[in-house]
User: Which sequence fits this backbone?
């Protein structure tokens, strides 16, 4: 069975601070995809990033960056120079390649950015 | 980009009635869609996989006779909550498979009185 753990329930920061969200996953499969989604108060899920298990290259996309390490089964996500609009719940999710589309979500981390 | 819509966005109903929620992929065909449920302050839990032209596959613990799913076309899946009760009040979200990612609908908030 798969499992996604987001140990941080809530993170509060002041605007312009960096925020790093932790995600640890468990799976016995060797091919899978990892996602980060943002859920603002409106409820709609916003796709942020996706990585597959073959690609451990870490990248930066605007103010977002991620650190994927298979050795520790971690897929951490960082928001640089946070803004008030970043306030939302962030979900890490896992999808196995042979059941593409079925997402196992973590519990979510509430990010609160204050001015 | 790919868009998934849901209708209605909000529904309030009396206990015992049935409610139908539609999920549409607006600019792409989706042979597979997924239905999730999210209770307040909780994560999303997969309820079922909706397959075009065949029966839905339900996750363990989800009552298939209570949550009827019909995927009648390549762009439409419907979830019907039959004989709804207050404990069915939740946020229902659908998603559709698209190359390299999943796109989610805006969700439907159901309140059963």
Assistant:
């Amino acid at each position: 069975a798969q499992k996604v753990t987001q140990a941080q329930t809530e993170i509060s920061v002041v605007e312009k601070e960096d925020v790093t969200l932790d995600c640890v996953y468990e799976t016995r499969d060797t091919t899978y995809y990892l996602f980060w989604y943002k859920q603002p108060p409106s409820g709609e899920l916003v796709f942020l990033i996706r990585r597959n298990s073959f690609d451990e290259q870490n990248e930066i996309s605007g103010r977002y960056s991620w650190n994927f390490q298979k050795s520790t089964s971690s897929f951490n996500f960082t928001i640089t120079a946070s803004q008030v609009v970043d306030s939302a719940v962030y979900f890490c999710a896992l999808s196995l390649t042979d059941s593409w589309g079925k997402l196992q979500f973590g519990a979510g981390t509430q990010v609160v950015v204050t001015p | 980009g790919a868009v998934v819509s849901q209708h209605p966005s909000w529904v309030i109903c009396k206990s015992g009635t049935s409610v139908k929620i539609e999920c549409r992929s607006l600019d792409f065909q989706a042979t597979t869609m997924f239905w999730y449920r999210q209770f307040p302050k909780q994560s999303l839990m997969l309820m079922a996989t909706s397959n075009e032209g065949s029966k839905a596959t339900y996750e363990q613990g989800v009552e298939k006779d209570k949550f009827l799913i019909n995927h009648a076309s390549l762009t439409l899946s419907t979830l019907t909550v039959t004989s709804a009760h207050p404990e069915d009040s939740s946020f229902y979200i659908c998603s559709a498979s698209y190359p390299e990612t999943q796109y989610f609908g805006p969700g439907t908030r159901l309140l059963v009185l």
Notes: Chain A has a mean pLDDT of 93. The CA atoms of residues 65 and 78 of chain A lie 5 Å apart.
